[in-house]
Amino acid sequence: MPRVPSSASNDRPPVRQTRIQKAKREAILDAALDVFSQHGFRGATLDMIATRAGLSKPNVLYYFAGKEAIYTQVLSQILETWLDPLVSMDADGDPLQELRAYVGRKLEMAREFPRESRLFATEILQGAPEIEGLLSGELRKLVEEKAKVISGWSAAGKIAPVHPKHLIFSIWATTQHYADFRTQIDMVLGTGEDPFPEAAAFLDHMFARLLAPVQAPDSTPSGGKP
Amino acid sequence: MPRVPSSASNDRPPVRQTRIQKAKREAILDAALDVFSQHGFRGATLDMIATRAGLSKPNVLYYFAGKEAIYTQVLSQILETWLDPLVSMDADGDPLQELRAYVGRKLEMAREFPRESRLFATEILQGAPEIEGLLSGELRKLVEEKAKVISGWSAAGKIAPVHPKHLIFSIWATTQHYADFRTQIDMVLGTGEDPFPEAAAFLDHMFARLLAPVQAPDSTPSGGKP
DNA sequence: CCGCAGTTTGACCAAATGGTCCAGTTCAAG
DNA sequence: CTTGAACTGGACCATTTGGTCAAACTGCGG
């Protein structure tokens, strides 16, 4: 038993991987995302993950070193995607457009990847034991950088003056809310319909109003047609 | 052993309660709030709760029927307080003042009761199995009622037209974010200082700008001094 | 000081669960 | 077809954990 699999840390494509290995590992990771996002780390069991992936428990352990290794892997895969929308906010684009697009992209992620959003939320709620480093390292630096960009836009009169970091927090909060608190939203709204279209309109309107320059800066002063 | 304690369901003060019973039950509930909010239901153990309350595990079980009974009790106590700020939003008050006060009260709760906020968030994240009834009953009705009030204010030109329910969602999201995601906020901001003063200023400004009537309705048109 | 309801806990129990072993089965290269 | 490596899963193990029990202890009204 050569025991090749189980690459707990970083994924290196070079390490030879059978077609079957790739498929099974993906199946396990997807099942794990399901289970972890629904029950949290402690609430999830290997049996749940195995069953959902269509494998036996020992077989899951053949591909991953253990429960924690699976969790770590799932989480690190999420994080790549998670920062993307903020990263792609362009300092050279039109300020108001860029920020509204960021809100839109973030809301789109809440709609497309609710499991990821919930898992991330759970992890942070419990003190982010697993991703502490990333938060105080990569994320902090990124926010610092983008906050400067936003401050620049404010100073140039392109958008209204706002506290840039708290603006970012409010964007995270409002968009992720539609994934993380979906249960509550459905119960308050009545489960009949998709809340996202109205949410998109509301949030776009809200941030447009917040950010519209107070005095006409150089072009169209109004936010847009509601 | 008459086994008087353990009133799992509603709390009825009439049922005789020793001074010692009251004290111990409170200690257990407080310890449980600590532990449940930090680890979730599954992640919490009776031993953690017992230790934190300064009791032995069997002793805890003497006062409560079981782990779930403790959890239910903690949760139901929270919910009373939780809806309070929204309840006290007065339809006859000044619209903008009422809404800004609501935001302020809600943020204050995030600051004063972060454990409660996190426990509530965890519960909803996992599908709110324990409080489903309350959400789709009491809460839904309350939101329905307050949404009508807000719509009335909009129609009367007292505040700008907004989707009332999504406005409420955005208030919940932004305020609770400072409790639920506190770990992330500290890491992004640098743990040095209290984020709440700036958060209060930012959120007040944001909602004031969102809600300020577009055309002067009948009195002071501007939102206030920044 | 007695007696008993009220209180406390060490010792235990059974189920759940992360993880291991090893005897098989499948697969693909030669 | 052969053969060794890759893969699979039934049986098993150790720990954790929610919960039980009976024996012991405490405090107070009579």
Textual characterization of the structure:
2 copies of one chain form a homodimer. By secondary structure, chain A is mainly α. Chain A is built from 10 helices and no strands. In chain A, α1 (19-43) crosses α6 (114-125), α5 runs parallel beside α8 and α5 (95-112) runs antiparallel to α10. Chain A is elongated, with a radius of gyration of 21 Å. Residues 6-14 and 217-226 of chain A have low confidence and may be disordered. The interface between A and B is large, with 54 and 54 residues. The first copy, chain A, binds a DNA duplex (30 and 30 nucleotides) through α1 and α3.
How do the strands and helices of this protein lay out in sequence?
The structure is a homodimer of 226-residue chains.
Chain A: H1 19-43, H2 46-53, H3 57-63, H4 67-87, H5 95-112, H6 114-125, H7 132-155, H8 164-180, H9 182-189, H10 196-211
Chain A binds a DNA duplex (30 and 30 nucleotides) through helix 1 and helix 3.
